[in-house]
Structure formats: C-alpha cells, structure tokens
Specification:
The complex is a heterodimer of chains A (143) and B (345). Chain A has 143 residues and is mainly β. In chain A, 3% of the residues lie in helices and 48% in strands. The relative contact order of chain A is 0.18. Chain B is mainly beta and 345 residues long. Chain B is elongated. Classes of the chains: A mainly beta (143), B mainly beta (345).
C-alpha cells in the first residue's frame, strides 16, 4: 500500500498529504534508502548495526521500478562502498526483475536467471551476503 | 478441603518442575598437573544428576545416551581426532535397570549432527550450544563446542541421585594458552529437545581457566588485550571493528587521555610485499567510547588501497595521536597483530 501510494505524496507546508493523482496509473519508480547494515556472528546472533560505522554506506541505493503497481525492474547502486556484496555478477544499471510471492519471504528475482536480488519483509527490502569469513553474515535493509 | 488438595498438588507440581529444570549440576573440574603445549592433558569433570532428569527410569522413559559437550579453542583443529572421552558413574546402569554402573565407558565425537529443534532447525549441535550457552567468558578468541555421545545408553536408578565422572584426554595445540575450558552434559534424545535445555546456562555446564605453557606463542582468550576485534573471529576480507584500550591493568599507554587517536595499518601480502596506511582521515580516526576505550570499523583492503582479489597474509595495527608525537606501537612486531580466522567462506 505504501509503495503504491508513494507516487502520490504531496507536501504542503511541513505536512505530508496523500492525494490520489488523477494521472496516477501505478507506473512509477521509488528509491529505497539503506536503513541498517547488520553484521551477525556466533556471538552477536541478532547482529550489530554498522550502517553509521563505515564510509560509503550512505551512497548505497535500491531503485525499484513499478508498472501497474508490479515490480518490473530494479537498480542497485553500491556507490562508494569498498566491496561488492553480491556473490554473482549483478548487471550494472536497470535490470529486469519480478516479485515472487510464492516464496517466503517474498523475493525480487532476476528475470534472466531467477537469482534473488532482495527479499521483502515488514515493509522493507533486505538481503544477506558474506564477504570472507564463513561465520560472519551481513544484511542490508532498505526502506 | 478439596481446595486444599488442589493447592497441595499444585505446590508439589511446581517443586517437581523446578527439580526437572535443574537436574544436572557440574561439581568440579580437575586437570592433570602442569598442562603443557603439544602434550596430553587429562581433564576430569564430576556431575551430580538428580533422578528427575528422565534418563531411563523404568516405566517412565526409555534409556538414553549421554551427550557430553566440551568447549576448546577453534585453532585446535584436530581436537576431535585426538580426544578420548570416557565416563564412569554411580547409579547409572549401563546394561539394564539395576545393572552395573558405567565404568570407563567410551564416548565418540558426533561432528556435524544437526538438531531437530524448531528454533534451531538445521543448526549443528555445536552451533545450537554456542547460541544458547555461549563461550564461557572467552571474550578474546574463537572457541568451538565439540560433542561426544556415549556408545551405550544409561539407565538411571530409580529414586536415587546419580554421580557421573567424565574424563577427557587430549593433546594440546602448539601454543601457550589461557582460556576457560567448559563442559556440559545432557542426554542425547531428551537433551536437545527438552525445553529446559534451551538454556541459557542451566547448571549442567561448568568451566575453569586452563593455562598451558611451554609452547611457541601466547594466546589469551580471557583477559582483555590492548587490541581486539568485533566480531571476535574475522578474516581480512571482512568489515570489522578494531578496538583499542589506552590503559591495561592500570598501566597507561602514551596515548591515555588523547581525544584524537588514529589507527595505522601494516599488511604483509601473500606475494611477499608490504602495504601500509598511515594517513590521518575520517577513515582512520578512532571513536572514543570512554576515557580509555576506542574503536574503528575498517575494511582493510580499502584503507590499504588493495583490490578485492589481493590476499593479505598478516595484518598489524598501531595507534598515534593527531600530530604523531605520541604513539602506541607493539614492542617487537610491526604492530599489534590482528589474527585471521581459518573459517574462509
């Protein structure tokens, strides 16, 4: 619901107003910003949020494209983060995706090979990855 | 009158539940004399088992196997191969109800065994125990739980408490060590399934500081070091926090009291070359959390200007104030070493 209405937010003064635009047709894009980066290990099983600890995270972005309110493409920008999170070679720029509601959590997958780009839970996109140590897992959460 | 009976049975029920929840108690750990690196160490642990633990009482529960857990440093990679575990008991019969007690019965390692507990579905016993019990105050090094199962099931003698003695003989690694060795005991079929073993600490676990000398290095997992990392167990291709204290055991470093402390890095690469980062920037400025504690999250390859494919063989850190007039450097090494975990992705 939030996603489908996001193209219709108007700000008057200092307040947000949801207004149904007469030209609204469910086709829009929305850039989700990084909310937290959880680093999990056997001692810190719930993870430590390091989003404010490493320079570069502020430049991460996840842009989602909707057509008829359905996800059709996605663009992930790693910005100046000094490593690559995806274990596979994610094409640069806008890539065609679809939203798989048959799996849990629901997932955004690449149309080309069904690779999972991100999961969707509690109104947020997230995905997990590892860098070097098998005991450490990272999670990006976008909202 | 009827109400009184209900209250009495409720109280009895609560007592029974309390006993069931606290059925096994670690009593004492004894080491062989002078634990020495590269030599065999014998550790004996005594347990008291209250007969409410449900270990095969006639007519109530089937007999069950003993499950023994021991926590040792992860760097002892061949621990399971060289450790020999035996157990002896009083009032735990080995063949049948009323049969002879366990006497030097052997237990074998069961690495990779997964736990059918819903909360930890798919986790190994080692991962489950680490999450529930933790690492026995070993804060400055990586530890691993190992599990052993008795070859034969035990029968608890009805209405009597039991005593269990577990002896483990193992060859220590080549390093000098200071760590807390920890043991836990439970039953194989009931233990990991039963709600009271979902921990955390139940009393069935007991630990003791073990100091090993005569080796070729010194690893201290118990006492706070000048430099540590979060996570504790990292590889050089990870993001991690370098933690630094400017006073240890009451002895201040030259940087004590400095508000602005910078981290410097020295790396030895697998191709034999050396890379350094001595730049003062926001990426190397430590965050101060109290009068003596600082931390900074780093991605070492970024600071050192390396590619992701470059391999760091060893990594050292030093510290200095804003104008470089005060430094805290390791006395003999290129810097304070950051140890790398062998658990590569």
């Amino acid at each position: 619901m939030i996603l489908s209405l996001s193209g219709c937010v108007k700000i008057y003064g200092d307040k947000e107003h949801f207004i149904i635009d007469k030209n609204y047709n469910g086709t829009f894009d929305y850039t989700f910003t990084l909310q937290k980066v959880l680093e999990k290990d056997p001692v810190n099983v719930n993870g430590i949020d390091i989003v404010d600890e490493l320079e570069g995270y502020e430049s991460l972005a996840l842009k989602v494209y909707y057509v008829d309110e359905k996800i059709t493409a996605l663009e992930f920008t790693e910005g100046s983060v000094p490593y690559t999170a995806y274990g596979f070679n994610l094409p640069q720029g806008k890539v065609d995706c679809y939203f798989d509601t048959k799996c849990y959590p629901n997932a955004v997958k690449l149309k080309s090979d069904n690779s999972v780009i991100a999961y969707y839970k509690l109104g947020q996109f997230f995905f997990q990855f590892q860098l070097d140590c098998s005991e450490i897992t990272y999670e990006y959460w976008f909202k | 009158m009827k109400k009184k009976h209900i209250i009495s049975w409720s109280v009895l029920g609560l007592i029974a539940l309390a006993l069931a929840a606290c059925g096994i108690f670690g009593q004492e750990i004894i080491f062989s004399d002078n634990p020495t690196a590269n030599k065999e160490i014998t550790m004996t642990t005594r347990y008291l088992i209250q007969n409410t633990t449900g270990m095969g009482k006639p007519g109530e529960n089937s007999p069950d196997y003993l499950l023994y857990a021991v926590l040792v440093p992860s760097v002892w990679e061949d621990f399971e191969d060289n450790a020999v575990v035996t157990c002896s008991s009083k009032n735990i019969s080995v063949e049948s109800y009323g049969g002879p007690d366990f006497t030097n019965e052997t237990c074998h390692a069961i690495p990779g065994t997964t736990i059918p507990n819903a909360e930890f579905a798919g986790a190994t016993l080692s991962e489950w125990y680490a999450a529930k019990i933790g690492f026995a105050e070993n804060k400055y090094g990586s530890m691993t739980w190992h599990f052993y199962k008795s070859d034969k099931p035990g029968y608890l003698v009805q209405d009597l408490d039991a005593e269990l003695t577990v002896t483990i003989k193992f060859k220590a690694g080549p390093q000098n060590f200071d760590f807390n060795i920890c043991n836990g005991i439970m039953t194989y079929n009931n233990g990991p399934h039963t709600w009271w073993y979902n921990g955390p600490w139940t009393g069935a676990e007991i630990y003791k500081e073990l100091v090993i000398t005569g080796g070729d290095a010194y690893l201290d997992y118990v006492h706070q070091p000048v430099v540590s990392t979060v996570p504790m167990n990292v590889r050089y291709g990870d993001v991690f926090s370098v933690n630094y204290v400017s006073e240890l055991s009451g002895v201040p470093s030259p940087l004590k009291g400095e508000k602005e402390v910078y981290l410097t890095l020295i790396a030895e690469l697998s191709n034999g070359s050396t890379k350094e980062c001595k730049v003062h920037s926001s990426k190397t400025l430590m965050k101060m959390t109290d009068d003596i504690s600082y931390y900074k999250y780093v991605y070492p390859k970024d600071l050192l200007g390396l590619k992701q494919s470059d391999e760091i063989k060893s990594l050292y850190v030093n510290f200095e104030n804003a104008d470089g007039s005060k430094k805290d450097c390791h006395e003999t090494l290129p810097g304070y070493p950051i140890n790398q975990s062998n658990k590569k992705k």
